[in-house]
Design a protein that fits this description.
Shape: elongated
Strand order of the largest sheet: 15-19-18-16-17
Structural class: mainly beta
Low-confidence stretches: none
Number of domains: 3
Distance between the termini: 44 Å
Number of strands: 19
């Protein structure tokens, strides 16, 4: 927004209201009785007649939205103003470049228990135009990608900060390190996994091949160097067979029941 040169008044509260129906007033120029989802709330008056001032916020859709109303939704006694700015006896702002963007979903992942020296993949598939940052960076393969591998030596809670447009979103995930087990010596393929989880094989050796077959024997996934990064949302709920071939030549077969998440 930018204050018009001719505007007599300037104020400090410009808001935006998203709704399924157009706000109702009595036909007069007065306060609209609606609560905006976000607004500029500052002690500084918006006086700039040359530059543009950005007003933005984050809104969770409820469905059926059709209208965007922009203006001051607050009564005079809740609004700071200054007069004698110009000859037009109203508060007059230019509004430009109004846009609504769908934010990328953000998910740090499910809390997990791993063995010391084992690793697990965090996050999810990223999207262009989004900035990702993980903290702390200790034990992470890369702290600036959406889905790094985590191999902490101690139990660690990671914070994912996702920035898109002006929206900054955060989520956390805790990786519990079990120092009593020996992942390097014990291979374990889970028997029950939810579709929201990856297929995580404990004790996985680098260079291991894995194949997943459905109940009819159809190959649904194959990796010649599996890194615990197969997300089961790609599968329907049901029974599958995982066949893992280790670099040593050993072959392991395991029936896996994939359950749909609630």
């Amino acid at each position: 927004m930018s204050l018009a040169d001719a505007s007599y008044w300037a104020n400090n509260r410009i808001g935006l209201y998203i709704s399924n129906f157009a706000p109702i007033n009595d036909g007069q120029i007065d306060t609209i009785t609606a609560l905006p989802q976000f607004f500029a709330d500052t002690n500084q008056l918006f006086l700039d007649t040359i530059n543009w001032v950005k007003v933005s916020g984050t809104y969770s859709a409820i469905g059926g939205e059709k209208y965007i109303t922009i203006g001051n939704f607050f009564a005079d006694n809740q609004t700071a103003t200054i007069g004698n700015m110009g000859s037009f006896m109203w508060c007059y702002y230019y509004i430009d470049d109004v846009a609504v963007y769908e934010l990328a979903p953000f998910e740090a992942g499910d809390d997990r228990v791993i063995c010391l020296n084992d690793s697990v993949q965090l996050g999810a598939v990223g999207r262009s135009g989004v900035t990702y940052s993980w903290s702390p960076s200790t034990g992470l393969s890369n702290s600036n990608i959406p889905n790094p591998k985590a191999a902490p030596e101690h139990t660690t809670t990671y914070i994912l900060t996702q920035t898109e447009c002006d929206a900054v979103l955060q989520d956390t995930v805790t990786i519990v390190v079990d120092r009593t087990c020996h992942a390097a010596n014990t291979l374990f393929i889970p028997t029950v996994v939810f579709t929201t989880q990856p297929l995580f094989v404990s004790g996985l050796e680098s260079g291991s091949k894995i194949e997943v077959f459905d109940a009819q024997g159809k190959l649904v996934y194959r990796s010649f160097n599996y890194e615990n990064n197969f997300h089961l949302q790609q599968l329907n709920a049901g029974v599958y067979i995982a066949v893992l071939s280790a670099p040593s030549g050993s072959v392991y077969s395991q029936k896996i029941v994939v359950l749909a998440a609630d």
